[in-house]
Amino acid sequence: MNFFPYRNQELYVEQVPIKKIAKEVGTPTYIYSHGALTHHFEEYKKALKKIDHLICYSMKCNSNLSILRSFLNLGSGIDIVSQGELFRALKAGADPKKIVFSGVGKTDEEMAYALKKKILMFNVESEQELIALDRVARKMKRKAPVAIRVNPDIDPKTHPYITTGMKKSKFGIQYEDAFRVYGKAASLKGIKIIGIDCHIGSQLTDVSPFVDALRRVLQLIDRLNRMDISIQYLDLGGGLGIRYQKESPPSPQKYINTLLKELKGRNLTLVFEPGRSLMGNAGILVTQLLYTKNRDNKSFQIVDAAMNDLIRPAFYNSYHEILPVHKKPRAKQTVDVVGPICETGDFLATSRSLPRMEPGELLAVMSAGAYGFTMASHYNTRPKACEVLVKGKHFYVIRERETLADLLRGESIPKALKA
Ligand SMILES: *Cc1c(COP(=O)(O)O)cnc(C)c1O
Question: What pLDDT is stored for residue 41 in this prediction?
Fold first, then answer.
């Protein structure tokens, strides 16, 4: 299903021409397709139909309130990594009983807030964190429901910056230590063990590392059962990849079916924390061509979106397909698509074959629905882009473009500096 089709040479999001949205709200603008995110979520849901499960949308990839609400309406839980995300999720209407809290550096304050809100589960990432959580919970006369995030030491063969389940990474508890830490957890009065968790990386395009990780975790579950530590929730994290260029990741169906084969005869509630595979291909970034530069050996298209809007190309050297919003027959050229920011790393694409376009034309940066807006910054004092949600024939501004005043919010000049 294509939620970003061309009709009469014009690029649409569902049934709305992008041109129309850009005319109304300007550029740069993120546009999300409600149909696409629904379709992606339903694929997971269908694959998991026959078993006890909870899909917790990993909101760090796109945390707009309307996006959260869309997933909540579909029955989703939420995977959070900070107090701010919990606040946001609750504002969007999330049921705390469907919230899992991941993250390698939870503070006492964050733990207390999450305990007060009675979330489903803390995914604990170190022994020190476990002890801190026990202390905070006891002080509140609570028992913190816990899964321990195990680092299964599996190479997911993805970009090193998004590899999280290898020995050398900061995430989780080493496989060899996990058993002992569970023993410790069982002895703490403020802790209630309910699960086990692993998340090995992001943008995985092959199921085998997931299977390897799962097998290691299942061995641990068996060992724990023999110690009378019972595990109800098996949280397999997120990480399923999407197609940006030529990747061919397994479908959620295939990925889940492969995992289910390993889980036959077990009585576990499965938790998944997908982010990118739900949102990545449900959003685009629309930008306007400002200027072109043609040099002897290099051509540039200078656009009004920059690395502060979409940092993935600069940060991970990621590929995002770029499409002209208005398609017409014309010669192609090899260009770098760059933003206005004063950094050589400020590019959206390099050495890309694109049609020769005129200033004022619109371009769509595809697959930008995940880790796009949420990684945006104000670098170069640029206001953050507007966000729009399309549903069928209608579109809704779900975050206004920031104003110049927004950029200064909270800043002040102390008297001592006043001339
Ligand atoms: C980032 C993250 C996810 C989501 O990863 P995707 O690759 O976007 O699916 C899930 N779980 C944890 C713990 C994460 O840090």
Answer: 98
